[in-house]
UniProtKB/TrEMBL annotation:
Species assigned in the record: Devosia epidermidihirudinis
Transmembrane in keyword set: yes
Transmembrane region(s): 12-32, 223-244
Protein name, UniProt field: Methyltransferase FkbM domain-containing protein
Keywords: Membrane, Transmembrane, Transmembrane helix
Pfam families, sorted: Methyltransf_21
Domain Methyltransferase FkbM as annotated: residue spans: 90-224
Length: 303
């Protein structure tokens, strides 16, 4: 509980710095209004353009509601370096935050969105339609993992913590979902190269990365946005050995801070803000991608 409170405090402080006191106070008003009214469904209009509908309370996005926009550093980074026509895969698309951002805020980008939860997929489809980007998004109702087959997926009361069932114990709201590997799905889709691969799957990131190793070893992805997690530490080192470099990005300084050691302290305790994702970039693509728009610096400790 103490760790969660500290994380919430740090994230609120970061959001306050990103959007400013006035916008944050207005967002707190929206937040408490929703909590008091408790509608079955609501929406949030983001300053960057997208509108996101959500079912309340399980899909309620408090950070977006409070700050009124995407505050995680990777969003600013991608907008800064994006080129027209990027091809993006969103693994763990949920209700479409990253997918909607990519399809509306990056020039002519196309997104393949993978999401196993039927409830999330229903909202994701509404959000794609609401933002009029149906022609730039393909929705795949399935989970990506380290093998093909089927599995049980549990949708929890907090959709952000939903995930594949890890054991045989009895669970509540479950459904059978299709499993595939990213390697196999890219082959079927005829995709030879990805500009961005985002992976956020509530602790199952190692399985997704296992199923993407052929693609990564062949250098077919330029940028990965990976949810931080202790179980993923060995994978960061493995991916780095395949010719990728790992970073945190600071929007205010327009700099990437490089991470070169992959123990817990090096990865988790040297963030210059409460970042949730690691930005991983193929070394050969780095000079052309940054093109003077973003600088690279050594790891930076502290907020």
């Amino acid at each position: 509980m103490l760790h969660r409170l500290q994380t919430a405090r740090d994230k609120f402080g970061w959001g306050l710095r990103v959007v400013g006191p006035a916008a944050s106070l207005a967002g707190l008003g929206r937040f408490f209004s929703i909590r008091m009214r408790r509608p079955d469904r609501s929406e949030v209009h983001l300053r960057s353009g997208p509108v996101l509908e959500f079912d309340y309370p399980r899909q309620f996005p408090p950070t977006l509601m409070i700050f009124g926009d995407f505050i995680d550093p990777e969003f600013d980074f991608l907008k800064r370096v994006a080129r027209p026509g990027w091809l993006v895969v969103d693994v763990g698309a949920a209700i479409g935050q990253f997918t909607a951002f990519t399809a509306t805020c990056l020039p002519d980008a196309f997104v393949h969105a993978f999401e196993p939860s039927s409830a999330n997929v229903a909202t994701l489809r509404r959000n794609i339609t609401r933002n009029r980007v149906e022609g730039r998004v393909a929705i795949h109702h399935e989970a990506l993992a380290d093998h093909a087959g089927t599995a049980q997926f549990e949708t929890t009361s907090d959709t952000w913590n939903s995930g594949l069932v890890r054991d045989e114990a009895e669970h509540g709201n479950t459904e059978i979902v299709t499993l595939n590997t990213l390697d196999a799905r890219l082959d079927v889709l005829g995709i030879a190269h990805l500009n961005v691969l985002k992976v956020n799957v509530a602790g199952f990131e190692p399985a997704v990365l296992d199923g993407a190793m052929r693609t990564l070893s062949e250098g077919r992805v330029d940028i990965l946005i990976l949810l931080l997690g202790l179980a993923s530490l060995p994978y960061y080192a493995t991916i780095a050995a395949l010719g990728y470099r790992c970073f945190y990005y600071h929007p205010g300084e327009q700099s990437l801070f490089e991470v070169t050691e992959f123990d817990e302290a090096s990865v988790l305790n040297h963030r210059p803000w409460p970042a949730r994702h690691l930005i991983v970039i193929r070394a050969e693509a780095l000079p052309g991608l940054l093109a003077g728009l973003v600088t690279v610096q050594p790891a930076k400790a502290g907020p």
